[in-house]
Amino acid sequence: MKLAFTAAWGSLRPIMGYLLIGVALGAAIYGYMPEDFVLKIAGADNPFAVPVAAILGVPLYIRAETAIPIGIALMGKGMSIGAVIALIIGGAGMAIPEMSMLASIFKKKLVAMIVVTIFLTAVAGGYLFNILL
Question: Which of 62, 87, 101, 128 has the greatest count of CB atoms below 10 A from its CB?
Fold first, then answer.
C-alpha cells in the first residue's frame, strides 16, 4: 500500500499546480462570468461558436489537467459541448509555445499547415459533438 501511495503521489505532484490553476479558472468562470455573454459568444444557437472557440483556445494554452474544470464551468454557463471540445483541441494543439518551437525547426509553410490541420480538426470535432450529443 505504501509503495502504491508513493507512486501515486509521484505521478500527481508534477501536475498538481496545473490542476489547481484549472480549478481556480473554472471557479472564476463559473462564479463571475456573465451567463448571457457566454451564450452570446458560444451558445448552442450561434453557428460560429465552434470556430470562435477553437481560435480562442490558442492563447489559453489549455493543458489536459486544466481543460476539464474550465470546460465544465463553461458548459455550466451555457456553452455547447462542441464549442468546449473545439476550445480544448485548439488550445492543446496550437499552443503558442509549441508553435514557436515548431517555427524554429520547420519551414513556416509546414507550421501553417499544422495550424490549419489542428484548427479544422477542432472545428470538425466540435460540430460532430454538437450533432451527436
Answer: 87
Cα–Cα distance, 75 to 51 (Å, whole number)? 16
What is the amino acid identity at position 60?
L
CA atoms within 13 A on the CB side of 18: 14
pLDDT in tens, 80-94: 999 999 989 988 888
Rounded to an integer, what distance in angstroms lies between the CA atom of residue 24 and that of residue 15?
14
Reported as a single tens digit per residue, the pLDDT across 43-87 is: 777 889 999 888 887 767 667 677 788 888 888 888 899 999 998
- Asked whether 51 and 127 are in contact (CB, 8 A), the reply is no
Task: List the alpha helices (DSSP H) in the chain.
Answer: 2-12, 16-32, 35-42, 49-60, 64-76, 81-93, 96-105, 108-132
Q: Cβ of 107: how many Cβ atoms within 10 Å?
A: 9
Placement of cell 459541448 in the chain: 81
Choose among 2, 78, 88: nearest CA to 34: 78
Distance between CA atoms of residues 24 and 27, nearest Å: 5
